[in-house]
Automatic annotation (TrEMBL), chains A, B, C, D:
Coiled coil: none
SUPFAM superfamilies xref list: Xylose isomerase-like (SSF51658)
Entry EC number(s): 5.3.1.14
GO BP: L-lyxose metabolic process; rhamnose catabolic process
Top EC class of this enzyme: isomerase
InterPro entries: L-rhamnose_isomerase, Rhamnose_iso-rel, Xyl_isomerase-like_sf
Keyword Ion transport: no
Listed name of the protein: L-rhamnose isomerase
Superkingdom of source: Bacteria
Organism of origin: Microbacterium tenebrionis
An example Gene Ontology molecular-function term: L-rhamnose isomerase activity
Entry keyword annotation includes 4Fe-4S: no
Alphabetical UniProt keywords: Isomerase, Manganese, Metal-binding
Length: 387, 387, 387, 387
């Protein structure tokens, strides 16, 4: 019998993780972007690659788009996705690559540039209407590099005004999720640097505005699961951008750098009612700078699934008993027992029971898809960030 | 003519910085507390030492107390303070030194222990009534050391309930300020680890609850002046605990570790209307582990004064012009010009114009006070943290 | 059949981890030290407690002492230890608790104080002669809190001179291991803050001087396994002080904060020939501030054993093949497969095969020892750090 | 009379700071590189811009080149530089932008790729012969992103072998300086992550190999001036790459983020005999992502000069007296007095006494050079990193 109970399996059955279209394009550092054979040249090819991840894992039914990187005929793209068994998801805006935005976009001193950035977001909402997407995700890359360069307070006020104008345009079933980030690309100050700022800003907008938590966007030593707990408690956790990091915003495969941290995060998600809760979207936001992209995404969703399974295995009654009695070691033991349990064989069984291969990484490698796209996708310009 | 304009001098004239009574007692690390000759044995002697700081600087008219470390007859203490030209200020509670609080106080699983901690705070409000203090400062030392040890979410909810009971008891002119701290004494999680949590908790209480920002309580690399700006903008910055640090909560003399950071903080205070604003209390919270205590406090208030003067010297019009035109270097130059201006001679003049010595450190050293207390305070138990 | 091959089991069979006598005494933070029933009052009781850890795990045959905390008749103590089935191990010196050392010991400006500190170390070598210990461990708690306070360069030169005098006194089979620490108790500078400084200092002494790596003594984000690799490569890794930390030198149970980091460290130990290598001592250096002490030590040595087993399971040939072919995901998968393998049942079997209980934590709890010492050890002063 | 004594002025007179040619080209983050009018299109135009910095400051007589970014006819370039009053300086190699180097260069598993990287360095030495440069600077951008991806130990050994081959080719008056960097572009491990590793590697090569310290390449909280002190003490500080940072390797203008840190670094340089010592090269390594480039470099060299002047003002005798007597506050006061002294008017006088404009920033702005290059440099491809 599986170590995963029917209840646990039912939870896992419902799990879905959104893939970022840009993970299938090239990415890198300011020093170098390495290209790879078979990299998509357009959004249609990105969707095709994303569909492979879902095919082998049954975990990734939706794909997030980035505007303008994924500009195309969205009716066609939606049809293309559905034909491949996936759907279009969150729409991500971009206010960091236009020359006008060198000193800010939604926060810029110049009203005309602010309006341009607002209009970009309204255009993104048009895209959402076309794609059937629910969420508009705003990562605010704005900030300054030198003390004195910017008026921190004025920018915060202008940010509120700009967000308000975007918020007003949202449909009844649409949401705005505001991502925070500790630093980069700005080095001295970032206009939404922490969860507190994102929380204050979205609270001032209304119920359709939520916080997006990217697991790589915190200061060293930050207890991220505490923030997860708090945002769930405050009813404002809108989505996750999963990835992992050792030092900065490394955008590595989720769970790769500190698997135990991912376990603790998922435990708080479950504890706070955030698992399989439509209000809390699970997304990846990663860069496969040196590893293969499609297998990198497969590994990522498997990591989230495996760690969710481990977190679901925590004996909550035993944990509560130990916590209430102040038995530190007993409580920690209950917690670690779940983490150290090897759920991989049971998940392989689960996949087989659904007609999938036990080992998605091997199945993908054996499928010949990688060789096919490497052979087919010759010529054109490989997709990337256009930085 | 002084480089400090009459307007700047008028602002400096109003400045007052509260001293912590515990800075005059012994403190140290978990490895060692070094004692020094002349260290106070009781709150009366601490107040006497604090009065010396005010005498030589005219900057420190109030003294914060810590309960139970400063338990005594508060009517007598108030009279004693007034006789020495100072007043009693903020009352600090203590929920980290009773054996019952090993696993929490206001957040404890056990309702009886929570009530004990609440009662302690109600007793502190009684003290406030006796001392005429406005602010009850709560630093929540609670947390856990091991993942699984504590129910993060449950503790947060219990914290709210406990704070609510304390808040209700506040008088019309009294306030509760909630301090946040990144880590220590708990190592895995802290119940109020960041400004966002403190903000969410005090917002749920009401207008008399505010956030206390201790400059040493942040993760590495945190932009503290941004938080100052944000809390002022949200109307929730209740007080500062000034000190400085290189790595952790070092509690060094304010401005000693990163003077430019102090400048940036004070600039945002001024920019956001927080200077000489009764809603925003300036306090020190420091430990003089290896340096002399009274001179350490004198140096501290002088550091705040000098840096306030520099921040007041920023040419705000020129700064705005440069910011609006995107001239990064010009804006930074305006900012740095103020920082690099040597205000010390002008402040020495200002002191002399008020009948004080130009050099408070020298004046104190020459006063013979240190020799006197070293000679007089023989026997008894030197004050410390009682850890 | 066990997942642990005979080769792996043979390696595990040889593993030994030294316990610190001070882990059985009370410890805490600068804010509070909580006492617990049954805490030892003298070194003899500490050794008795340490023997319990070895009894239930067969992993901890030696106990490190701290001078002067463990001063006693060392002939008696050695006999006492042997009667209980353990031996005395590393001798730790203390240059941070004497009032003379407020501004340094081996680095002090005053030659008389330096000599006092040197003499203390010579006395420690006398203790080593009496206890039969091989290693003198020097953790240099010296440093300064304020820029300008100390002459960094002069202190470094004096440190060399002082160490030279201690080194000269070592017996042929004795060693000096020099521990480095990022910060605390000094906050601005520490005289041996990093492995580079320790390496430079011990290299200048000679072959009997080595570096001690405490896993909690690094800056945020430091790749500790890299340092392990480098020191092994340079032939200068003398010993480990194992513990874990979230933020600073938390001294938590090894493996508790970041189990994957412990795995990576042990993998590099194995890769570099440091496992069961007499030159590389495995020690714990932890504080059980809130959890039970003896079970805390049992958990600790089990954590090291379990993670060593996982690291031994890495398929080195497969890893090398993947590394050589630049297959990032395959290499990472080989690595993670070992980490995620649940070795606990196999280790339980191994214990049973040696006549021990499968579950050392349960066996200790059931033994009644804790109740016995709580009842017996009444009166006297509980051991602690004497801070 | 100037506050700068003749001795101080004589030291300042000798100061020279090398400029990086790449600071005059475009740079940015992985998200965006903003171009600016007038940006050089080739090394000749970079040299012309660099000469402007020297013209207005008399501080920057040499320019470092980066190979292959600055490949050209070096005889012509040398002549061009001399005509403009500057000289060619350090040659920087590049092993991070060739597709072959995705998994390493000097450390690669494949001997053929290692040889390619070695050959690149030998070609750089050929360039040095042509340019008359003394120093070959190697920043090793190599590392890995995922645990298990790379054999840390094997790479370190291969690094030694590769460096040895390069070292052997150095001329009698040439040097190799090895830069270390905490992280980026690799995220999990970097092959030369800290000064200890660079020191161990260059020590194994010989006297012509030295360490390069980039002030932005350390973990959070690292005491950089301590490393400066230690490397000077060990005789292995070959050069500085000056810049500043708030969080990661931000490459901001030196002194911009933490001016007091720059002061402390320069104090240790002076204390350790590193000022105007030919063995210790002062260089900038910065990116002007959002500010003007030529004025950015002018500001940078002025910052170094001003802070050197402040550090030279420290009353070393008074400092020593305070340090020897354990008077923490007195020592700190001596130190801070120098930092807070406004040396800018005296340096303006010094410039005027040498026939330069008092305000180099204003003089450059008034010169019309910026307008001229903006008008002239039309067409072609603006120089950048070619990432």
């Amino acid at each position: 019998m599986s170590i995963l109970t029917p209840t646990v399996l039912a939870d896992l059955e419902k799990q879905s993780i959104e893939l970022p279209s840009w993970a299938f394009g090239n990415s890198g550092t300011r020093f170098k972007v390495f290209g790879t054979p078979g990299t998509p040249r357009d959004p249609f090819e990105k969707i095709a690659d994303a569909a492979q991840v879902h095919k082998h894992t049954a975990l990734a039914p939706t794909v997030a788009l980035h505007i303008p990187w994924d500009m195309c005929d969205f009716g066609d793209l939606r049809k293309h996705a559905e034909d491949l068994g996936v759907e279009l998801g969150t729409i991500n805006s971009n206010t960091f690559q236009d020359d006008d935005y060198k000193f800010g976009a939604l926060t810029h001193e110049d009203a005309a540039i602010r309006q341009k950035a607002i209009d970009h977001h309204l255009a993104c909402i048009d895209v959402m209407d076309a794609t059937g997407s629910r969420d508009l995700k705003i990562w605010l890359a704005e900030g300054s590099n030198y003390p004195g360069q910017a008026d921190l307070r004025g920018r915060q006020d202008r940010l509120h005004e700009s967000l308000q104008k975007i918020y007003t345009r949202l449909g009844d079933d649409q949401r705005l999720v505001l991502e925070y980030k500790f630093f980069e690309p700005a080095f001295y100050h970032t206009d939404v640097p922490d969860w507190g700022t994102s929380y204050a800003q979205v609270s001032a907008l209304g119920e359709k505005a939520m916080v997006c938590l990217d697991t790589g966007h915190h200061a060293p030593g930050t207890n991220i699961e505490f923030i997860v707990m708090q945002l769930l408690r405050l009813g404002k956790l809108g989505s996750f951008d999963f990835n992992s990091r050792f030092y900065a915003d490394d955008d590595l495969i989720v769970g790769a750098a500190d698997p135990f941290q991912l376990f603790r995060i998922l435990f708080e998600v479950i504890r706070g009612g955030g698992l399989n809760n439509p209000d809390v979207a699970f997304m990846l936001d990663q860069c496969h700078n040196v590893e293969d992209k499609i297998p990198g995404q497969i590994r990522s969703v498997l990591n989230v699934q495996e760690m969710t399974a481990r977190a679901l295995l925590v004996d909550r009654d035993a944990l509560t008993t130990a916590q209430k009695s102040g038995d530190v070691l007993a409580a920690n033991t209950v917690f670690m027992d779940a983490f150290y349990t090897d759920v991989r064989p049971a998940l392989a069984e689960w996949r087989e029971s659904r007609g999938m291969d036990a080992d998605p990484m091997a199945a993908y490698a054996a499928s010949g898809y990688q060789q096919k796209i490497a052979a087919d996708r010759v010529g054109g310009v490989q997709a990337g960030w256009g930085a």
